[in-house]
């Protein structure tokens, strides 16, 4: 199946996403079996499903203009059209670089899950299958970065050392929550951008492929979260809620590396300050997070003073949950 055959609905579609009820019991074996069948039927190979040889199109965006971090700021008004497109190019490279790190980390959690399970049950088989999807995605992201001609935006070594702690966080709702945190915010942003005809065609294809395959991952992680919360006692649930809220505060700021600003001739601190104080920061982060936060709320992940204070600090909460 090629991605060109796939019809996607405009803008904020939820195509491919299964509704997971945060309050109902989960039949994981049946659901994982369904996800396994879907993985066998619908998967893409970016090596052949993206036309890598076609040149970038002039005047097309690498990120929708209104989602570029400085959009609407005073700095933005002073920037030329070329500079704005160039900033979008650097920001997508930063997001995809972060995506590679994140998929690495998620895959290691899936490996742990497969090793911890019954080895031959549907859930273990699906965990292994999902690692295959993520390997193809990271290869696709790396290929796209290479095509821009820009180097990837690497995270500082100290931070990577710190991130290793996540390999030891006990599996459970905080790990499925961290998975959703990455997958759902990117999903929402990509569903919008992939339907935007002003975007570079290769990026639209990349986003379509990613959205279509990630729909399964989101379903799996949501099911995992619901099951995990329902099978735990009060103290364990509170621990996982708190850990997820802390991870959220670390993850959001990593999407856009502040080094993107000097790359387009803007002072790093000035760019970062403009990004953080822009009213669009909250608009964008709320937009990307809303379906996920509502699900977390339904699944019982948004309770307790500490948890809510941490979430408020991310500025991602919809107005009615603040
Ligand atoms: Fe992925
Ligand atoms: Fe994924």
TrEMBL record:
Name this polypeptide is given: p-aminobenzoate N-oxygenase AurF
Recall the taxonomic lineage recorded for the source organism.
Answer: Bacteria, Bacillati, Actinomycetota, Actinomycetes, Mycobacteriales
Q: Which SUPFAM superfamilies match?
A: Ferritin-like
Matching entries from Pfam families are given as: AurF
InterPro entries in UniProt: AurF/CmlI, Ferritin-like_SF, RNR-like
């Amino acid at each position: 199946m090629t991605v060109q055959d796939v019809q996607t609905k405009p803008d904020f579609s939820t195509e491919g996403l299964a509704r997971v009820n945060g309050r109902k019991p989960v039949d994981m074996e049946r659901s994982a079996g369904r996800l396994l069948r879907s993985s066998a039927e619908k998967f893409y190979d970016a090596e052949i499903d993206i036309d890598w040889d076609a040149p970038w199109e002039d005047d097309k965006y690498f990120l929708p203009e209104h989602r570029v971090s400085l959009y609407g700021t005073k700095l933005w008004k002073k920037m030329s059209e070329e500079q704005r497109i160039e900033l979008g190019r650097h920001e997508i490279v930063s997001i995809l670089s972060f995506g590679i790190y994140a998929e690495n980390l998620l895959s290691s959690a899936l490996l742990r899950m497969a090793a911890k399970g019954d080895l031959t049950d549907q859930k273990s088989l699906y965990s292994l299958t999902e690692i295959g999807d993520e390997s193809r995605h990271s290869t696709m992201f790396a290929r796209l970065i290479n095509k821009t001609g820009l180097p990837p935006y690497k995270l500082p070594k100290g931070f990577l050392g710190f991130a290793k702690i996540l390999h030891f966080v006990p599996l459970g709702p905080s790990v499925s929550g961290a998975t959703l945190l990455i997958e759902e915010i990117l999903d929402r942003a990509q569903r919008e951008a992939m339907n935007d005809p002003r975007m570079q065609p290769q990026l639209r294809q990349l986003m379509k492929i990613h959205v279509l395959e990630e729909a399964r991952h989101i379903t799996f992680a949501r099911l995992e979260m619901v099951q995990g919360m329902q099978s735990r006692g009060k103290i364990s649930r509170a621990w996982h809620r708190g850990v997820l809220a802390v991870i959220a505060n670390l993850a959001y700021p990593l999407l856009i590396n502040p080094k993107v600003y000097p790359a387009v001739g803007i002072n790093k601190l000035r760019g970062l300050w403009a990004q953080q104080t822009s009213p669009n920061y909250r608009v964008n982060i709320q937009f990307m997070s809303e379906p996920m936060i509502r699900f977390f709320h339904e699944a019982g992940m948004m309770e307790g003073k500490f948890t809510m204070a941490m979430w408020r600090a991310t500025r991602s909460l919809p107005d009615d949950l603040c």
